[in-house]
Amino acid sequence: MVRGSVGVIFGETGTFEFKVMVLDSSKVYRGAYVKVWHDASSDEKDHTWVLGQVMAIKRYSDSFSIEEAMKGQRTDKSDDKIVAEIMIIGSRDELGMLRAPVIPFSPGSPIFAADEGLTRSVLGLTGNEMSIGLLEGTNIKVQLSVNSLVQKHCSILAKTGSGKSYTASVLLEELLDHNIPLLILDPHSEYSSLKVEGEGSQEDFSRFGVKPKGYGSNITVYTPANKALNPDADELFRLNGMNLTVNDLTAIFPDNFSTTHTGILYEAIQKVRTELETYTIDDIIFEVGNDKSKAKWIVINALEQIRDTNILSPNPTSIEELFQKGKASVIDFKGVAPELQSMIVASLCSSLFESRKLNRIPPGMLVVEEAHNYAPEKGFSKTTSTDILRTIASEGRKFGLGMMVISQRPARIDKNVLSQCGTQVIMKVTNPNDLKAISKGLEGVTSYVEEELMRLPPGVAMLVSNEIERPVLVDIRIRKSKHGGESVNVLKAARTVTPPPPPEITYNEPEPSTPAPVRREMPPVSVPVAANENATMVDVPVMEVPGKEKDLAPPPKRKPSRAPRNEAGNEAGGKLFKKLFGRTDN
Ligand SMILES: Nc1ncnc2c1ncn2[C@@H]1O[C@H](COP(=O)(O)OP(=O)(O)OP(=O)(O)O)[C@@H](O)[C@H]1O
Ligand SMILES: [Mg+2]
């Protein structure tokens, strides 16, 4: 036995695989990396260490037959044989190209546990900026390159509860450590916890070589609702409500808006522009009201619904404020109805892309949680945000705008978006359609990879990237900051005495101070509003899609002057606001 060897090659050998009689089972296990000296060729420049990986492992005994087994338990296990199947990965030549041997290894050659240098160089793990964890079963750090991850986009895919948000946060921490601007679309209020230092055992932190860290002042949480509905938010998020163009409005309208409707809107905006230097959505509504066709009602209805969400403001949140070096802006969609979320995402991402193209903001990354909701695959559903996310996926890299796509349903994300992701971090997936969607988008994914994905333990991810030679398993590192996506312990909650519900939130819009548009007198609101202010609204209402049937109010008369917004209309607007955003008591 050669000193340090962990096995010996035997039997028939090929250029892609061989079998090994295992001598040290603590070093040779499924997934372990091994090396073997290749000197079968007569050409000395081919003599090199070659990296291989254990794909399967079997154990058997010659002496313990079925007859012996029928007799009962076996005490002497000394003649057990362990045989491993090794897949050859290859070696790097002097030009750094991956080469596989062309002449098979000789039976009798010893194999050794692979060292870090060989493993890193052959696998192509040459990034050195973002530490995301350890190569499964080793102490080898897996590091990614910031440029490659951001420019070429990345996806994080796994079934629910498998650690997507956790892994995404690990990547975000690393990006924040490199001052990369981040814009996070957060439907479940999970990412504000990046502010807080993480908890965990000292042993785990030192195993991964990281220290607990909260990103406090680097994180700003914005709410498209208001602070009464989302008290944890730091700032309000508002879209520009002044001098809206047809494009601005069609970007936030659902797709069922026809060319007739767009035409009516176009004419109205043209007219308002000739009359007023600055105009609001109220002015547009008034002008659409003067149209003679019946189709105007659909347009008025859509415009009114958008206006009544209060998402439009004369003091919009600027992209320059959201996207800054070293800052993560979290758009927390808590309590915002799905259609409105999609409108906001469409409008926000369009501005983000345009601003980046014009170099008004630095390069950075857009993070899309639950991406199947914002860019669904055709045939599943339709949303306003799909087009712009598709555009960012295909053109973002030219402008240094990266996208991180996170989803539990890979089969339901737009294929154009998913296929553009150069780095894929995949955790446990069991749904056959999702497995198919993943393997379709990945080159060289074998049935072995699909098998592996179904069996991944918690906290372990498969990393697939253009930069690395083959998929590798990564033990994802512990978070530096606190995890915000903890599951609710249903049993514990049921055993806990429920405190009385908090008092009803009375809506008092705390903004804005600058000259604001006149709000026309509110027509009777068609959705039933709670009869008294203390009534509890249990259901979270969903914003109706413009164009759906609704009692239509006559168009308003334009008022001659622009009074502050805190007027009579606001009260009714507040109730409707609550209806549309839902009430969140938790
Ligand atoms: N690498 C890891 N190390 C330690 N714990 C982890 C790791 N990954 C996930 N977890 C734990 O697993 C649980 C689920 O993780 P996470 O919230 O990220 O799942 P998810 O895939 O985002 O789920 P959902 O589909 O519900 O959004 C968390 O409570 C987290 O603490
Ligand atoms: Mg999650």
UniProtKB/TrEMBL annotation:
Residues 576-586 have a biased composition (Basic residues). Residues 132-350 form the Helicase HerA central domain. InterPro entries: HerA-like, HerA_central, P-loop_NTPase. SUPFAM superfamilies: P-loop containing nucleoside triphosphate hydrolases. GO terms for molecular function: 3'-5' DNA helicase activity; 5'-3' DNA helicase activity. Residues 495-521, 538-586 are annotated as: Disordered. This is Helicase HerA central domain-containing protein. Belongs to the HerA family. Gene3D superfamilies: P-loop containing nucleotide triphosphate hydrolases. It catalyses: ATP + H2O = ADP + phosphate + H(+); Couples ATP hydrolysis with the unwinding of duplex DNA by translocating in the 3'-5' direction.
